[in-house]
Amino acid sequence: MKQEIEKHPFEPFLPDGARILFLGSFPPQEHRWCMPFYYPNWINDFWRIMGLIHFGDKNHFCISAEKRFDEAAIRAFCTAQGLAFYDTACEVRRLKDNASDAFLEVVTPTDLPALLARIPRCDTLVTTGQKATEVIAGTFGCPVPPVGGSIGLTIDSRPIRFHRMPSTSRAYPLPLEKKADAYRKLFK
Known about the structure:
By secondary structure, this protein is an alpha/beta fold. It is 25% helix and 24% strand.
């Protein structure tokens, strides 16, 4: 039986002046969300990493008593920092009933040049997992950077730095502090 196609549930988050575009593969199923924004799964460490890097506190964006992230604080922070978000797939099929990239089939990849045209100051693409990295490499015909590494690209005559970061999923076997060290390099 063919799995149904899921359309991306969020609009791209593209604040004015955005310089860094974070690209995952696709959000988890809605029942795993603790907020309707990027990296919505309470057990994903993306917002803990951002809290640790920028505020010295992994719980800065957490409302721990409610097991959710502070979406308003996150949106304000991302707008002030020029951080944009979307994913490398607009439509997917889940081959298993979970959030694992290993079981996601990309049906419709994101038109990344069109997305970048909407944020003309963006000079950095960041992927946060293997599937997203593979989609970028396939789209632009470039090599896959090592985890924690980057390469230079030219997209529509525009120089872009493409960083491949460790997955923020807790399934990725790297301690939070080590993941934060890798992400910290983006902001130097």
